[in-house]
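Budget justification note: compute hours in this period were largely spent on complex prediction jobs such as the one shown. Inputs:
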Amino acid sequence: MSSDTVADRELRAKCEEFLFHTAELLDNRKLSEWHNLLTEDITYRVPIRTTRERANQAEFSDQSFHMKEDWGTLKVRTERMNNDFAWSEDPPSRTRRHVNNVRIIENDGAEVELKNNLLIFRQQGDETEPDILSMERQDTLRRTEEGFKLADRRVYLDHTIIPTNTLSIIL
Amino acid sequence: MSHQTDQSPSTAGTDPSRVQQVLGAMGETLEDGEVPIEILNNEDVYQEELKRIFGQVWVYIGHESEVPEPGDYRQRTIGEDPFIFVHGEDGDHYVLFNSCRHRGANVCRAEKGNTTHFRCPYHGWTYDNTGELTGVPQKAAGFDHLEADEYGLHEVPRVEAYNGLVFASMNADAPPLEEYLGGATWFLDMYFNLIDMEVIGDPHRWEVENDWKTPTENFSGDNYHIPMGHKSAIDAGVGSDTATGEKESELYGIADCDGHSFSFYQIESDEPTYWGHPPEVVEEFNHNDVTDNQHEVARKSGVTLGNIFPNLSFIFLGGRDDPEKESVGTFLLRKWEPRGPGKMEVVNWVLAPKDASKEYKERVYEVGMANFSPSGNFEVDDVGIWYGIDDAAGSVFAQKQNVRTLFTMGRGENPDATVAQDWVGPGTAYRNGGMTDENQLDFYRKWYKTMANEEVN
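Corresponding output:
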């Protein structure tokens, strides 16, 4: 691993600030505010994972996805989730996103590529057993006049069978 | 639960006589359109369902396009039981029990792949991809008495395909698949003879706290829930043209079709619909491989959906994932896998026309996923409106009061839903089919007959 300079630490702190802030927006169901922090050319993908033999590296599908989104489809989803008739989120699920292990992969000045781990705690109604979703995200943050925006997200789930009733939350 | 320690091992924790009581009560009210809610969450009923339904009838395994090459395999279940769906070296499709003949371990541990052989990790017994036993370590030293050809992997007694859809039945005496599908063949021929379809990629799989029969009864023809249950998706402008009201349609609810049920939204227009497929895709269809009647129904089809008993549903719709984008036709097959009383796993496949462009197939996938999948704009609200059915069904109150769900819509003096005399397909078609429960009730009639063993197939 390369030596961690002050500049590296500052960059990581700035990226973490963006990730923590967007996680808070989603936990607090401020979906249109979250959507405002996406670039208009965003690609957002959650590929399906299958159990494979160790020798086969292709656990994640390049053809099939739980979500395969662009700016427009994410707008549809976030607006729909705010609709008074969006039953899967009314009463809303209580989510808490735990973002950690932030690793900067590349910084070319315009964009920063990074990896982070995400654990989502989700409960709905009077459930006492939470649904736990675990994943790695590979994100590209773009510098804009308004600060960082999310330009690309790949979500690599630690699940083959999704262990929650619906993915009516954003990962 | 724990005080019942005197149960015999074969029925540990379950009580078949309780099932007879529930079926008895169901028989009394079924034709009045009332179904005991208890059957949606009852351990005894569930255990008997696994045997009497999933252990008897033809159950969907997968589509041939999921295992295109010899050696390709996918793990699949019948009820909760583990099987390998494999394209054998000899070109046939096999459904093999995933358990070594020696000591029972799984011989296949990946969800999918391609292999010439399955090798048990326990002692190394090896089977070829048709299930034949081909290797036993130190056979001469310890198993010289073993006739290898008698110890291949167990196969499901009956495996048959219809239009590329592979089904299996644990009942050696089951009628031929085509006979079991009955009237459903008319619809399957219309889809699969007209359009060469293939499964795209891997299925979605997710766990839902509902009994497998809840979505099954829904897909058997609950068109009544759409304005309320799916308002958020319709408002978002991502539904079909018929759901958004963009196009007027006539809805036919098809009942009396051998336990399988269908709904057809037909758009009367000079402009052909073909489930929202655009002209350049429609051009490639096999227009001469279906009957004139099938062709006419296909031409006018907006959304069509249904269920093949017991747990294979489908929806074919023209829709979009963003109101700014063009509509495409997307076909979804879904299997509601029993995973315990009041619990299921959903398996969802997206199918696209095989000969369409790569770009079009990607759009078909995206639109299918955006509407029907764990994240589907329509599907999430289906699951969202079913919350608590399992709790009510499993309640003491429901048992004590014999709480029943209602399938009596359209039984008044002046029902909107009337039998369409001009229907050209099989079964009995109800015009204004959203206003009848007969197609949904057929699912429970078939369930009841199969559970009561009045009909073994």
